[in-house]
Amino acid sequence: MLRHGGRAVALTAVALGTVAATALPAAADEQPTREQILADCASGEGQCTFNEPRIGEAFLGEARQVSDLLYNCSTSPASQTLSWADTVGSSHSVGGSVTVGGGIEGIISASVTATYNYTWQSSHTETSTATVTVAPGEVGWISRAQVMQRISGTWQTHYEDRKWGHYYWFVPDVITSPAPNGTDGKRSAVMVESREMTAEEKQSCAASESTEDQVFTRAG
Question: CA dihedral defined by 173, 176, 181, 182, rounded to 10 degrees?
Answer without folding.
Answer: 50
